[in-house]
Design goal:
This protein has ten helices and 14 strands. It is an alpha/beta fold and 361 residues long. The strands form three sheets. Strands 1-2-4-3-5-7-6 form a seven-stranded mixed β-sheet, sandwiched between helices. Strands 8, 10, 13 and 14 form a four-stranded mixed β-sheet that branches. A three-stranded antiparallel β-sheet has the order 9-11-12, with no helix packed on it. The chain binds zinc ion. Zinc ion binds next to loops. Keywords: Carboxypeptidase, Glycoprotein, Hydrolase, Metal-binding, Metalloprotease, Protease, Zinc.
Length: 361
Amino acid sequence: MVTWRLLQAFGLPFTLLAVSAVLDFGYHDAVLLEHFLKRMHVMHPTITHLYSIGRSTGDVELWVLVIGKNPWNHTIGIPEVKYVANIHGNEAVGREVVLHFIEYLLEGYGQNEELTQLIDSMRLHLLPSMNPDGFSKAYSPDCNGVNGRNNQNGKDLNRNFPDPFAPWDGFPEAETKAVMRWIKSEWFVLSVSLHGGALVASYPYDNRSPGGMQDFNYVWGQCMEVTLEVSCCKYPEGDKLKDFWDENRPALQAFLHKAHLGVKGLVLDRDGGAVVGANVLVSDRNNLLPFNTTEHGEYFRLLLPGQYNFTIMAPGFKPLTQTILLSEPRNFSATRQDFILEYNGKEKGEARCASWCERNG
Ligand SMILES: [Zn+2]
């Protein structure tokens, strides 16, 4: 970020900034990270949105940059996707890789066909650091240490979520609370959590010890989160970052396509009204909690190509069972399938309320 700081110091105009190289290969502390995200937003105002999901225990903003054709709001049919890094503060490669991925996507928009289509077909939320306080305590090089792993209160944030298989102490840290709120509010479909210290990809369930973020996403957020450990060394020297970026960039890009696996659509009543909180069940794909439609009556189910039996259930409506044949994603979209439910002999208002009230108390 030397370029950025020098240009600021000399008061050079923004037009010059816009054409200069942006992100160097080195580590960026909380101040530089915030500058970078704000600058990316200023340079790409129509396809980015910058917001904070809360503050860390040490009072640092947890910044999220959204990239998408409509970055401000959810659009029906457009999957919400997130990339989260640095939940363990000393696992620093993911943090920098996410920053470079942001720059890469934004520079590619309108230039590269695949990147443009990806950005136009999803709303991608990127949280480069979930544990900025831990990162500020960690140091490089440190391949195997634990200094900075936990948050400022000494808590491992990836063991701090409710766990469906183990008792929970019920005391989420500020960072955990912020992410839980975020997951409940955005209805993410697909997620990556970037770690370091090994080369591993793990998927739900990972309850080897209580409270992983990945299982929380899957059970309570209806979101498939994959945990990726992307470097054997947790916090390598900065001059190794270019290699890690080159090694991981294709996979991070390819993974975005998986947001378009399977099927998506709306569950509606016969008048076209959204049925909120309807169960969208797939036979042989049992979940601990059923997948429900959102406040828009919308659902997404990530599924490989094949034939599936769907059952849609909501209080006040007759259950609907339908067989659906799913192909590979086409044109950067999952298969679209809406379901129309018939009332179960009750009045319309009663049926709608039943479905909403059961879910929301
Ligand atoms: Zn980790």
